[in-house]
Amino acid sequence: MDLWQLHVFVSVVENKSFSKASSSINLSQPTVSLHVKELEEYFHCRLLDRLGKTTEPTKAGEILYQYSKQLLTLRDKAESDLHDFLGRTRGPLFIGGSTIPSGYILPGLMGPFLEKFPGVSIELTAGDTLEIIRQIKKGKIEIGIVGARIDDPGITQEKLIADEMKLIVPPGHKWAQRNFVDVSKLFEEKMIAREKGSGTWQSICKSLEAAGFHSSSLNTCVTMGNTVSVIQGILHHVGISILSTIAVRDDIHKGRLIALPVKGLNLDRYFYLTLSKKRALSPICNKFIEFARHAL
User: Fold this and answer.
1) What pTM was estimated for this model as a whole?
2) Cα distances (angstroms) measured from residue 71 to each of 6, 7, 57, 77, 268
């Protein structure tokens, strides 16, 4: 048994497929199968069940998967620590962001960071806030930036950057010429909601509740899974919505969308630097955190 075999095994488990794993790690499918077979012979048990088009770990496979992840993480940390000690910051950094951070904040940080540390490679995972939290807890990403504070004993968060949300309407909307809209008026219009795990939508619901309103009373005609879809929905008159002004900055500047304050509703929020309490951070991750704190 060696670490490369464990790396191949982990890839099969996480991709739920030999063929997808082979594509992911640039090995032929027979080679992937051979590595798994050698592991099964080493442990004298079946590690994976081939269930038609998907592959699932057996009970023994689940145990090996957990230890394999720890061993591979320790390997990566050892390499990173040694490179850092020798003054050569290099290695992979796995980061994640909810919709706004992954699309509008993290890309602006990654470029300058990679210029400063050219030996680093970054893999960015995008998802809603709850998905990024899950990935952090699983150890698939080290650091996340999300749009909601999460009550989870395994997670630590700190405020990183302030955000202002506003009601977004198309230029031809009846409210487009107003200076603001009263919160009570929101319940008269068709609204585009975000999915349950969205930090943006969680912030909106909390703000409404704090103002004495129920988000369930909104006329949410449609739910969309990302900000880009919501913006397109507003442009095509599906409905209106409350969005981060960071996400619609260019559209507002070009006059394609109008942003209005909502009177009686506090729509200020923060994006949070989010980490696992239980996992040690790599030197690269610590450098990225310090870089982000100073850059933002």
Assistant:
1) 0.69
2) 9, 10, 18, 10, 42
Domains of the chain: 3-82 (1.10.10.10), 88-160+271-295 (3.40.190.10), 161-270 (3.40.190.290)
Q: Which amino acid is at 7?
A: H
Exposure on the CB side of residue 237, measured as CA atoms within 13 A: 4
Q: How far apart are CA 4 and CA 264, in angstroms?
A: 58
Q: Please give the chain's pLDDT, 296 residues, in tens.
A: 899 999 999 999 999 999 999 988 889 999 999 999 999 999 999 999 988 889 999 999 999 999 999 898 888 888 877 877 777 778 889 999 998 999 999 999 999 999 999 989 999 999 989 999 999 998 889 999 998 899 999 999 999 999 999 999 999 999 999 999 999 999 999 999 998 888 889 999 999 999 999 999 999 989 998 899 999 999 999 999 999 999 999 999 999 999 999 999 999 999 999 999 988 888 889 999 999 999 98
The two three-digit tokens of residue 286, written as one number: 């610590």
